Amino acid sequence: MKKADNLMQKYRQRLAGKEWYHQRFDGSPTFIFAIAEAEVKKEKRKPKGTEADIRVCFFENGKADWYLEMGDVKRGTQKIISLAKDDPDISKKLLRGWRKDEQIFEKFFYKDFPRINLKKLTDRQLADLWHKSYYLFSHRATSSAIIDHFALGSDQLISDMLRREVFSNRQAKTYKESDFTEIFSIATAPVHQSFINQAEIELLKIILGKSKETLQEYQKRWYWSKNNYVTSQILDIDHFKKEINTWRKSGKNLALELRRIEQTPRQNKLKKQALLKKIKLSPLLRTLLKISEDFTWWQDERKRATYFNIDIGCKILSEVAARAGYTLDELKYAYPAEIKDALFLHDPSPKKLRERKKNSALIAVENAFQVLTGKDVQKLKEIVLGKNSYDQIKDFRGLSASTGKVIGPVKIVKSATEIGKVKDGDILVAVMTRPDYVAGMKKAAAIVTNEGGITSHAAIVSRELGIPCIIGTKIATEVLKDGDLVEVNANHGVVKIIKR
Question: Residues with Cβ < 8 Å from 446, sequence gap 6 or more?
Fold first, then answer.
């Protein structure tokens, strides 16, 4: 992918007046770019039509606002559905297509990279290592558009199909409308253990004396587990000792908690099997539910690999920074192809990189990308987002991901750095949630997000926690403010403002 000028003007018609899916997370260009390039790249493993045409991302002081054009999402979803009609095993075949590259990258992280002494490498060897690590990750990540498009584009479609089939003539007398949210939740629940939950399971086993693994061995395997798209956190032994202490002081029966976390995927699977015996669903809908299960697992694997990539990338960039007169934070705002020039030519300058951190944007298409700064960023925002007012809105709707009804004060979370402000009983409101939000999610009485589908992080975690969750509202973070008192009625997918 080559750097180009004036993509904003060249693709203005494709950017303006479109419907966009918005994701927000902690992120920087160096690491986000790999996903952007992977998603717009065309290759033989991707069914034609599942790749992205365009991606847009805005960066501001460690936060990234990532936009997917819904035309891409819908086209990619329809392609997978079309393939599913002819081949019920399409998801398994797609997973196999990337398995070798996934294994190669995992081996690089766990075995090859730890053996390398970065300080002993020549500048040329260091630049080559950066290129190799970037290639290995971006090549294994080209499945991203397939996963994201189906996850984001299939939720409403599956919901509509399920509703029609549940309330078909032969089944209509058996079920009431009030049953549907529970049916939908069971039908779309994940049946695989997430890596975050696996880390908790293994730590609980150490606490309870059910594991032969030492805490030191555990730390070596899980030190990366709280990374994000901008920060590599090397969790030390003391961190995990504090987690152990928190568990012990929680007042919970840890044996029961371990069993609950371990058994949740199996229980989800058993509930789903029982449901599918009671409700007659079409072969296509059953296939789509199976694809959703497989892609949820695949999405989690990609997230894990992303955390590996952040760990590797930050270690290499730290060495480049030390040799070339940058800070690590500055280099996180260089693009991957610029790292070599930063090392040998001291270009881009630290000043330019600091400007990008403050306010910048990325446009990525198949063969080119453009970096914008200054006034051009605002121009791009106006083209992409337009101008809206939400002052008069008193209630709004979304998709129920986990049932229940609660009232509580709003806490808007824009970044993992803000998760500490969520207290017991608060309503956590975010564009979307991520694994580094879990500490706040455990305290929240309910979760409301702008975006998200049936396989989203918020949907999965809220079900595990047993708290109400409404996803896909599109406007929650725009309508609500910190301190607003709201009612979250996830039985009907409605958020109502009680008091500003």
Answer: 404, 406, 408, 427, 428, 467, 468, 469, 470, 488, 490
Q: What is the pTM of this model?
A: 0.87
Structure tokens at 344: 């040998």
Count of CB atoms situated within 10 Å of the CB of 236: 10
Say which residues have a Cβ less than 8 Å from residue 251's Cβ, sequence separation at least 6: none
Q: Which residues pair with 223 in a beta bridge?
A: none
> With contact defined as beta carbons under 8 Å apart, do 227 and 307 qualify?
yes
Domains of the chain: 2-145+296-385 (no CATH), 195-265 (no CATH), 395-499 (3.50.30.10)
Geometric angle at alpha carbon 483, from 479 and 484, rounded to 5°: 45
- Residue by residue, pLDDT tens for the chain (500 residues) are 888 888 999 999 889 989 998 888 899 999 999 999 999 999 999 999 999 999 999 999 999 999 999 999 999 999 999 999 999 999 999 999 999 999 999 999 999 999 999 999 999 999 999 999 999 999 999 999 999 999 889 988 998 999 999 988 777 778 887 788 789 889 988 899 999 999 999 999 999 999 999 999 999 999 999 998 899 999 999 999 999 999 999 999 999 999 999 999 999 999 999 999 999 899 999 999 999 999 999 999 999 999 999 999 999 999 999 999 999 999 999 999 999 999 999 999 999 999 999 999 999 998 899 999 999 999 999 999 887 767 778 899 998 888 899 999 999 998 888 999 999 999 999 998 988 899 999 999 999 999 887 668 888 889 889 999 999 898 999 899 999 999 999 998 999 999 98
What whole-number distance in Å separates Cα of residue 353 and Cα of residue 348? 7
- Helix, strand or coil for residue 243? helix
468 cis-preceded (ω within 30 degrees of 0): no
Contact 199, 249 (CB under 8 A): no
